[in-house]
Fold this sequence. Notes:
Layout: E1 24-27, H1 31-41, E2 45-50, E3 57-62, E4 65-70, E5 78-82, E6 88-89, E7 95-99, E8 115-117, E9 126-127, E10 133-136, E11 147-153, E12 157-158, E13 164-166, E14 170-177, E15 179-184, E16 191-194, E17 198-200, E18 207-212, E19 216-223, E20 229-231, E21 254-256, E22 264-265, E23 271-275, H2 278-281, E24 287-293, E25 299-301, E26 308-315, E27 317-321, E28 325-329, E29 333-335, E30 342-345, E31 352-358
Parallel strand pairs: 1-4, 5-7
Antiparallel strand pairs: 2-3, 3-4, 6-7, 8-29, 9-10, 10-11, 11-19, 12-18, 13-20, 14-17, 14-19, 15-16, 15-18, 17-21, 22-23, 23-24, 24-31, 25-30, 26-29, 26-31, 27-28, 27-30
Amino acid sequence: xxxxxxPADTPGPAPSLxxxxxxxxxxxxxxxxxxxxxxxxxxxxxxxxxPADEPRVASLSxxxxxxxxxxxDGPAPTxxxxxxxxxxxxxxxxxxxxxxPDPPLDIPPLKPEFVLTRAADxxxxxEGRAGLLYRDLIPGRxxxxxxxxxxxxxxxxPVADWVHFHKVRxxxxxxxxxxxxxxxxxxxxxxxxxxxxxxxxxxxxxxRVLESSxxxxxxxxxxxxxxxxxxxxxxxxxxxxxxxxxDFAGQRFLRHVAAQTPWIAHAATGFExxxxxxxxxxQGLAEVRVIRSAGARSLAADGYExxxxxxxxxxxxxxxxxxxxxxxxxxxxxxxxxxxxxxxxDASPDFQLLEVxxxxxxxxx
Length: 365
């Protein structure tokens, strides 16, 4: 019998594949031990094998993969298969890793720090998913626990997005400038998010960005900083089902419309605030509000007991008081560490600040 891996045994044309099928080629010097490993050990199934009298090529399927084993040399790949167990090495050197197909969220421990990110000093935004431009507002990510991004679409028009969802603990979108048309699972027809509006995107809710105005600007905040975005090509939005009270891992979808929400006194600070309803929608996980100057020019706040106090200047200018005086203006962002006092001074009459606090109620100012 000839050696399986000899040049004389180079296979002829491969049998035709069914429509839509694709194969990953794994080169191997000897077919028999590879078949034994992938079929007997890993549970793959033989789909094709040839020639019958002296097999040299085989196609296998299993675990959502189709593999083609054939003579040849090449680098040994790594295959990630759903399951549990120690890594295995195939006869051709391929490394087999077993993974949890839906692992739990990894929420890194908080590493508090004072953060001040100025729009004027920031590097140019980087292009992210679907052509969106991202400016990082918390470069150190507080140990990987939080991410905040200033997202823009300069040209506007249709967005090359697809139906997707995020594996997150918390995620919200606040529209700063312009408008964006979006659609969410079980929440009815697409709608327009205007400047001042925001949404809570509860964990795993399917959604899609459809189009935007030129110059759209939104702020997105998520926990953890590193999280997966997963496509769902089988779901069509809008869904026929309408369930605005649906529970998503203890949260419900929230659409806050600024034009329908009154301003109220912000404690005894002399400022006013507009609440978004985020605390109720997240069952106390987070609070999101906009505060504005209402004749007062300064505000003092005691330290908070929580994870995050994030501010983003929507309009106007002020001086941030925390370990010194820091002038801030439109587009600047800051994070105040827990149990540290802070304040605002010299606020302009048009000053407005987006404030995100975790957990809800951790700060009264």
